[in-house]
Amino acid sequence: MQDDSSVVSSNELPISTSPSDSETDSSSPPATDERAALRKMMVESQKTITSHLSQAAKSDIAKGRSIKRQRTTFDALLNARIRLQKALAVANSFSSPLAAHTNQDDPLQAAETAALTLWSTLDSL
């Protein structure tokens, strides 16, 4: 009987365990250079991504602050409108000047009161 370990089939090639001189000299330095270049590219891409994310976050913060200011301004304007509407409703309740020839002091007093109310409302804003 033959020993199975010593038989080599025709399809198998003997494997060389020692690299040739041409492989050792030419592949090691370029592989190191390639790895360094890849690392450098990865670091640069990470910096780029980080800066883009940072800019997006800053943009979102600025938008949020703008929306807050806009809502505060809208609330203040709505509050002023409500207060002014009350004064305007009082002013509209006055009778016309032609019908009030007999009693001129009451409409003038009411107008003065409405104007002072309006002035104090505007002053409080």
Question: How would you characterize the overall build of this protein?
Answer:
With 125 residues, this protein is mostly helical. 74% of the residues lie in helices and 0% in strands. It is built from 2 helices and no strands. The chain is rod-shaped, with a radius of gyration of 44 Å.
Mind telling me the C-alpha Rg? 44 Å
State the helix count: 2
Whole-number mean pLDDT: 76
Query: What is the overall shape?
Result: rod-shaped
Low-confidence stretches: 5-14, 20-27
Q: What is the helical fraction, as a range of percent? A: over 70%
Series of secondary-structure elements, N-terminal to C-terminal: HH
Strand residue percentage: under 5%
> Biggest sheet: strands, sense, closure?
none
| Structure class | mainly alpha
The N- and C-terminal alpha carbons lie at a distance of: 110 Å
Regarding quaternary structure, what we see is: single chain
- Number of E-state strands: 0
Notable traits:
125 residues; mainly alpha; 0% strand
List the helices and strands and how they pair.
Blueprint: H1 21-92, H2 105-124
Helix pairs in contact: 1-2
Quick rundown:
With 125 residues, the protein is mainly α. The protein has helices at 21-92, 105-124.
